[in-house]
Amino acid sequence: MELIFLGTSSALPTNKRNHPAIALKAFGEVMLFDCGEGTQRQMNRLKLSPMKINQIFITHLHGDHFLGLPGLIQSLAFRRRTEPLHIYGPEGTIKTIEHIKNLGYYCLSFPIHAYEISEGLIGETDDYIIRCCLARHSVPNLAYSVEEKRSPKFQKDKAIKLGLKPGPDFGKLQRGIPVEVNGKTVKPEQVLGEERKGRKIVYSGDTKPCPEMIHFAYNADVLIHESTFESSQEEKALKSCHSTTTHAATIAREAGVSELILFHMSTRYRDSDMLKKEAKQVFDKVTVAEDFMIYKVKKHD
Asked: Theoretical Cys-Cys bridge with 27: which of 20, 127, 229, 249, CB 3.0 to 4.6 Å?
């Protein structure tokens, strides 16, 4: 499970920071969270193929978070993509995607499905659950979470003692299906250990500090939280519905997360060490996101 930071700036790009975009490489997929202008070029530099992206999650419809979509979509069509592309976002997303589909002259070779969501469950597979919640920004903004599912550990020795042999029956029990052996039924709970916690990643999008984020990020392994300003600019941050480094660190502490990654920094800050130092006064495990940073989310024991 890897978080790939393609763009980490706020409203304006700089020589070192592109507009916001984060790729999550996990579960045999590549998911994209936000798609600022220039995202596909950032992907090219990391040799990350956009053809592998089937799901895109947009936090809100400020230009720095979605204006990379038109170019990305047209490039996918140029490459003759046929697989559907699913794009999720707040109110206004469907209309926005329809405009993008009709922008300029090109041949769209694949279906695009746009969804407007607000809170709760977005999707679930055998491997993960994706949820969203409304944060507090100047326009509707969604925070997203991706939570890994982990099956209880299969206890092979117990299964063998119960008369089972390695093979298809092992797989059935791991999937929660009882099996028959020597005229007796072996239930999954007889050979499975305790429930195991999967990894949880939360991305705030743009938001001022709010209790919703504390609840939503509870016990996450990684919280990627916007930190547009330093704490001395708190008044400006709140007025523009953004957060400071201290706000982000406080939310991380209250939510009991394992790691905080500061994201969406104003272009005024060229020294990220200062931002990290300030946040660490409140919460110890802090990383400042940089363009092209790859963060590997560790498995639980």
From this structure: 127
Domain annotation covers residue 301: no
Catalytic residue among 64, 169, 206, 221: 64
Average pLDDT over the chain, rounded to an integer: 93
**Location of structure tokens 């119960």:** 162
**Does 166 lie in the same domain as 215?**
no
Q: Any residues with CB less than 8 A from the CB of 254 and at least 6 apart, and which?
A: 214
Q: Same structural domain for residues 259 and 276?
A: yes
Whole-number Cα distances in Å, 9 to 61, 75, 99, 110, 226:
16, 23, 26, 31, 10
| Secondary structure (3-state) at 242 | coil
How many Cα atoms within 13 Å fall on the side-chain side of residue 5? Answer: 23
Identify whether the C-beta of residue 181 lies closer than 8 Å to the C-beta of residue 191: no
- Give the closest residue to 205 by CA, choosing from 50, 36, 69: 36
Is 64 noted as a catalytic residue in this protein? yes
- How many C-beta atoms surround the C-beta of residue 83 within 10 A? 12
Number of domains in the chain: 2
What confidence tens digit (pLDDT) does each residue in 102-151 have? 999 999 999 999 999 999 999 999 899 999 999 999 999 999 999 999 87
